[in-house]
Each structure stands twice: as structure tokens, then as C-alpha cells.
Amino acid sequence: MLEPVLELLDWHGLSRGPVRARRIGEGISNVTFLLERDDRRMALRRPPRPPYHQRAHDVLREARLLTALRAVPWPPRVLATCEDPGPIGAPFYVMEHVEGEVLTDTLPAFWQSTQAATALADELVDTLVALHELPWLDTDLADFGRPDTMRQRRVDSFGRIWDSSPHRDIPRPMPRRPGYAPTSRTSGPSPSRTATTGSAT
Description:
Elements: H1 2-11, E1 19-24, E2 31-37, E3 40-46, H2 59-68, E4 78-82, E5 92-96, H3 114-132, H4 150-164
């Protein structure tokens, strides 16, 4: 399985020699592997093993987003992509490796204090705000999505995923908060392009 990855790395001049690979993290979403080659560390992203919802695990879409955001200091740089699912059974891409903590079922000790958790939450919100302030229409994302119909498409898409995925029946309606009104899957206003500035999907 590593041979096609080696060929891609060689084609893009990403170090030389054998590759050591190990999985990073857990879960059933897109899978991340650490690649170590010579003195270089990289990360490979691919969908989980089939069957899976192709649009819900579109790693090439991820790669396009990261590439379009290359002027922003936080995202890792995309190094190579493979659109052909043949070599390893799914499309994949390779990006820079970024050191950090991988969260699974426990938090690192230094994040378990109230101060650290607050700082982490503040940084997350600040980063999201900065991303939404980007002039995305001036980037390679100008034709990336259809923001005018984003809300309705999300409701429809998640509805189809729910209908086609195994799930348990809930015998009675879950309690709703006061004033709650569910969004219709077939009606309702769509946000304007102005109102969704910063969202490209």
C-alpha cells in the first residue's frame, strides 16, 4: 500500500528513501497518517475504508480549501494530491505535519484546568472569526460553493444521510427548548450572499 505513496512523494521531490507510516488519532471520519521519510515528517489524509458517504469524506475538497487559504498562517501547506482512487483504494493528499496534541477520549493534563480550557476555547473562537473575515471571493474559493442556498442544502443533505444510515428509533419526541421550531427540509428562506460572507460552502 505504501508503494503508490512513495511514487507520489518521489514525483514531488518530498525527501528520499523508505517511508514509515502510522495512524494519528482515532474515529471514523477521514483518516490521518504520519509519514516519516528521512528527516521529514508529513501527514496523509484519506477517507475511511468503504462503504462511506463520498461527499461527507471528500479529502480533495479539504485539500482545495487548504490550498486556497495558503496566505493564512495557520493551515498546513498541501504538498501533493492524488485524485485517482486506484493506487490506495481512495483519493488522498499529503500535507505538512503540524505538531500538536491529538485528542481521543482524554484531555492532556495541562488542558484540564479552567484557565487552560478557557484559553483554548478563546483561541478557537478567535480563529473561526478570523477565517470568516477572510475575503474569500478574492481567493480561489470564489466558485467553490453556493452560499445563497447553503442552509437548505445542508438540511437536505443531513436528512438524506440520516435516512440512509442505520440509527435507532426514538420512541417519543425529545424535549424541545421553549420557542424551538425545526427547520423544514423543503421550505424556508435561504441566507443572502451578503449574509454569508466568509462562508464558501
